[in-house]
Specification:
Layout lengths: L12 E12 L6 E12 L3 E5 L6 H9 L6 E5 L9 E4 L11 H11 L4 H14 L15 H13 L5 E5 L7 H18 L2 E6 L2 H4 L4 E6 L2 E2 L2 H5 L1
Parallel strand pairs: 3-7, 3-8, 5-6, 6-7
Antiparallel strand pairs: 1-2, 1-4, 8-9
């Protein structure tokens, strides 16, 4: 199948793009951020989408998450029940300053209507999974960049998503800390059974994932194009 990001035909397709494109603006000022992209992400996939800044990686990830709607083509989520089954990790700071770490981690659970007696226990378990349980009572301003990203991963893990999308999660970290954050992401995906898609411009991050696809000028390249 053209452009398929799959690791076995027996796995459920969690998200599928069919010639999906996204344009911002109109007329002469229009910018095509993503040209027609056709591929799918299946249960258990571990995928890196590589490319320089401005190549369309973030927009593609937003299409996968449903945060952006395609200007043309289609994006569907055949095996997902809804947005609660997708977890997003952003590149920049995403924690709410007024909430401590456990409250930030618990927020998606509260918004989803999880019973109060389960919320804190689930949040603490997620923090423990990413090695951040000792940070539970700290405020975001008291955390390092690497600690903040681990908490952001814990917030995603807490909702037990079937698909984790991470947009340049190591982009603002030094290489050693970035590799530790990636360790946490891969371990979290392994332990929850989630598929994982990571956008990155860092080859050392991309090589950690078995499936790698490149973007250039808004186009998701076919494997043959990537090798040329």
């Amino acid at each position: 199948m053209n452009g398929s990001l799959q690791q076995g035909a027996d796995k459920a397709a969690l998200v599928e793009c069919r010639d999906a494109a996204r344009t911002f603006g109109r007329g002469e000022t229009a910018v095509v951020a993503v040209h027609g992209a056709t591929f799918r992400v299946r249960t258990g996939d571990r995928i890196a989408i590589t490319g320089p800044s401005g190549s369309g990686k973030s927009t593609l990830l937003h299409l996968l998450a449903g945060l952006e709607l395609p200007t043309s083509g289609a994006v569907s989520w055949p095996a997902l029940a809804g947005p609660r089954e997708i977890g997003l990790v952003f590149q920049g700071p995403s924690l709410i300053p007024a909430l401590n770490v456990v409250e930030n981690t618990a927020l998606p659970l509260v918004l989803a209507g999880v019973p109060e007696e389960r919320v804190r226990l689930t949040a603490l378990a997620a923090l423990a999974m990413v090695g951040a349980a000792d940070l539970a009572d700290r405020l975001p301003e008291e955390l390092s960049g690497g600690q903040s990203q681990r908490v952001a991963v814990a917030r995603v893990v807490a909702i037990a998503p079937r698909l984790i999308l991470a947009d340049e999660p190591t982009g603002q970290l030094d290489r050693a800390i970035g590799q530790r954050v990636l360790d946490v992401l891969v371990t979290a995906a392994d332990e929850t059974g989630a598929a994982l898609v990571v956008t990155t411009h860092d080859p050392s991050v991309a090589e950690r994932l078995p499936v790698r696809r490149a973007m250039h000028d808004g186009r998701l390249l076919d494997p043959a194009e990537e090798r040329s």
